[in-house]
Amino acid sequence: MEEKLMEILNDLRPDVEFEKETELIDGGILDSFDIVSLVSELNSEFDIEINVLDLEPKNFNSAKAMLELIVKLQEEG
Amino acid sequence: MAFVSVEFLIFICIVCLAYFIMPAKGKWVVLLITSYVFYAFSSWKLLIFLLITTATTFLTGMQLGKISKNTKAYIATNKETLGREEKKLDREKQIQKKRRVVLLMVLLNLGILIFLKYFNFLAGNVNKLLGMAGGETQIPFLSLFLPLGISFYTLQAIGYVVDIYREKYEPDTNLAQFALFMSFFPQIIQGPIARYDHLAHQLYEPHAFDYDRVAKGAQLILWGFMKKLVLADRVAILVNQIFDNYMQYEGLVLFIGAIGYSLQIYGDFSGGMDIARGVSQILGIDLAINFDHPYFSRSLSEFWRRWHITLGGWMKDYVFYPLSLSKSFNKLGKKCRKIFGNYIGKKLPTFLAMFITFMLVGVWHGSSWKYIAYGFWNGGIISASILLESFYTKCSTVCKIDVESYGWKFIQMVRTFILATLGRFFSRALTCQIALYMFLHTFTSFNPWVLTDGTLMELGLKGVDYVLIFVMILILLVVGILQERGIHLRDSIAQQNILFRWFLYLGALFFVLLTGIYGPGYSATEFIYQQF
Q: Best label site of A12, B207, B284, B392, fewest CB within 10 Å?
């Protein structure tokens, strides 16, 4: 799952070092346009439904946080 | 009551005195009463609209809370007997019920806003269409007054209701306290548009007198006055001269008018925000930040993240995200991918959601085609920049441009400022036609000699005014750069010795008193965003 996520992230923004970044949203690295593209990719790839309420900086600030969100939504689903 | 007036300064002193004297339990009541007094001073006849929005928003919140609570209680008591599907069905029923309640509230409150703000604009356009179709029936225009701050408090109210619908927090159960959240005087006229979970508890909690906070709040107010009175109201003289007599000017002068308006609206709006935040800080309340040095942005999309942040944030959370992540947009995306391929197909629905958002941002400012054009300008440029991003990256690689160098960043900032400024033609000119005329004539006849042939001296400003504008830009630049580097100026000033501090405070005060632009009775002109 982690590999797939990294693949999606690197496809979306090849210029960002997702392994290291921990302030993707708070630091303004990903904008709302990136987020929408990312959410639709994650939804279809991991068969989850990311809600508008999930779009909080803490869930998208790092690849690790995104992974945790995916796992949480898969468990709930 | 205008922010920049002697009455307002007296009013703040009375509010602070009453607030700090009042025992802890009653402090929020002082804020509620003074907020309503402030509103009534400005437009007591239209107070009814604020009361309607407050009451309907509060009741909607309560109703939504009740529906959620009942469903949860029902599922909890019957968890043994209910199957997974039945629980899901109950939750779906609950969502449907809640949607109906939200829809009713939004229709009512948005309906009031649309009727008061846009009725005559819509009637005028319908009449034109009827006339073109040969009909003789005409919708009569109405003499409507816009309640102060309606565009701001309506969005604040909708945000609260949608958050309760999304179960982000529990509804407020105290109508009087909620009325304070909806009417808090420093922010009701021109924002910032508050979020309930950020502001409400700060308003309800008592705050004791704190010298450090009062001093910092007063400094922020003075800084706001400086931006408004020394910069914005001074540049306004030049801007009004050019925009009111646009036929007399051409090329660069028109563009100078737009640059002037960029400076004016920044000084005016961000100055107003500083005053609102300063007053609140004295009372122990932190209002949301609305500006983050927008003219340092390297792209127009970054500019919109740093300009009027609370409106952008509101639009993002309650329009852009729900639209672009909705099922219908998802379906549209799939269709687009089939037709246009993966790259464009994926982006098109998001572009559409963004265009709708920018249209709404434009229309939110007022009922005129020029605001729709303003939305198109911003949405169009941002779409183009996203589509051409890979092309730009290739170009910079081929040309061996170091995109992280200071020089390149500076060029990007200047480019963004020019793009934002060109868009200002639409927000400042009287009509869309005039804006287009000015926009086109900026490029069709460009005479650089107006800078030296004395034209600038005939725009209502004297040499000393240009010097003061230049000094203000310089101060704003230095302050901006220092803040961008993470230096907290007010904290740094507080660490200096008492002589230097007071020299600075008194210097700034006299600078504003001596060089500010005042009207009759020492009252400044109204804030631009107050009319929205």
A: B392
